[in-house]
Design a protein that fits this description.
mainly alpha; 4 helices; elongated; 2 strands; two-stranded antiparallel ribbon
Length: 127
């Protein structure tokens, strides 16, 4: 790492991060549809997880992070906080790895949709 006279750290990673953020702010309108669809599936998965936890209990949740956060915040706010953190992590990943953001977003959309379907099937007794 190189240090400038003001004491700031100048590194390639910091410069790349700044450039990625600038690019992201300029081009987010091109893939805003991905964030909207992902947010919809994220809300759907969080809602079915809340209903699932109220009916069957927190301990039956398979995802470790969501189960832990639900123990901390309860079966209503736990899935909301957990999915909010997951959405924020995707947003950060889309800034840092902009080439892969659409692929990662589509994989997450499928994952959240399958999570909502599985939650619903378990609640109905089909799984």
């Amino acid at each position: 790492m190189n240090y400038d006279p003001r004491g700031h750290v100048n590194s390639v990673a910091a410069l790349r991060s700044r450039l990625n953020w600038r690019w992201h702010c300029e081009h987010i309108k091109h893939y805003a549809w991905l964030f909207i669809v992902l947010l919809d599936f994220c809300v759907l998965d969080a809602w079915t997880t809340m209903v699932f936890m109220h009916e069957l209990g927190i301990e039956t949740e398979a995802h470790d992070w969501i189960r832990t956060v639900s123990y901390w915040f309860g079966p209503t706010f736990g899935p909301i906080v957990g999915k909010g953190c997951q959405f924020a992590a995707f947003y950060l990943a889309s800034v840092l790895a902009q080439r892969f953001s659409i692929i990662i977003g589509l994989i997450l959309c499928i994952s959240y949709l399958l999570g909502a379907v599985i939650n619903t099937m378990v609640m109905m007794g089909h799984a």
